[in-house]
Amino acid sequence: MDVIKYIALDVHIACIVALVMNAAGKVLLSNRVIPTSVVAIRKFFGELRGKYKLIVTFEEGSLSQWLYEIIKPLVTEVVVCNPRKNKLVSDGSKSDEIDTRKLADLLRTGMLKPVYHGEAGTGVLKELVRCYVCLVSDCNRVMNRLKSVYRSRGIATSGRSVYYERNRESWLAKIDRPEKRQRAEILYRQFDCLRELRRETRRKMLVEARKYPAWKILQSIPALGPIRTAIAIAIIATPHRFRTKRQLWSYCGLSVITKSSSDFNFVEGILRKSRGIKITRGLTLEFNHLLKFVVKSAATDAIRKEPFKQFYQTRVAAGMRPEMARLAVARKIAALILTLWKRGVLFDQKSLNLVA
Predict the structure, then answer these.
(1) Which class is domain 3-108?
(2) Which of these, 25, 15, 7, 125, lies nearest to 75 by C-alpha position?
(3) 168-199 tens-digit pLDDT
(4) DSSP label at residue 73
(5) Whose C-alpha in 116, 162, 186, 195 is 20 to 30 A from the C-alpha of 174?
(6) Domain ranges of the chain
(7) What's the whole-model pTM score?
(8) pLDDT, tens digit, for every residue of 209-260?
(9) How far apart are CA 14 and CA 28, in angstroms?
């Protein structure tokens, strides 16, 4: 029988603290400090290799993808865990040694919630998507700051005409204070730079996204434009990481969770399900925010035209609240992404009945 060693790592930019535990919970190596470098990490795991199965865990963070790519070829299994789910680690006294011991215990007992790190093939697209999303956010911030300069001088700025180059001189002339005018001019220059970078990044992102076979499949789904398609490919990477559509719904923040207590009771010595149980319902709070925005915004656009318009109106006519009907459309789009991508087929009218 293979002997398993459970290895927990507490990762920092300067060093990594490691702890090794066996299947019985006995600590074999504690508080081993390793420099955060490729050579030192490979040397450490080279010393542990032998007739052992090495299972490693560390928490998701800025170094996790880099560390995953280094460690994966050296061990049996790598579990990059979700730190939001590790309540035990934050409970009580805290130190690097205590944290690694708790992580190793959670790994040994199968109590860790893993974070997906399987596909490295979409790395270029992922980085371009991150750059594009950040540039869009930065542009919006500068636009809001520009409007705040005008509002601070009592100048109404409804609409988008304040951002157009052809209107800038007339808008700047309305500012009565030179220091405010100078600030607005600097913000305009910043906005122009960010807008040009955003256009360049968008172009590169779409060129990269078109290289993937999933591009044509997802583009055939109504309301999934090129930007949404590129983001979906970058985030999901492969549809086979989700066994069912409900797992994708949960990842998109579209699944409903229920909470109840005292579900059963004894009546005259017989176990019966309690009546009148108060069940709280709501959407899951652990999800990918960018992918949820993609699916929900696609659903908002989709309900304005066929074939989703009739799907939406039928549910509203049956008494479903409009917001819940939009959620149903978002779930339908997410299910279509998963099913069509797995099967490698394009969208058609029959596809709506393909997924329930």
Answers:
(1) alpha beta
(2) 7
(3) 999 999 999 999 999 999 999 999 999 999 99
(4) G
(5) 195
(6) 3-108, 123-209, 241-354
(7) 0.86
(8) 999 999 999 999 998 999 999 999 999 999 999 999 999 999 999 988 877 7
(9) 24
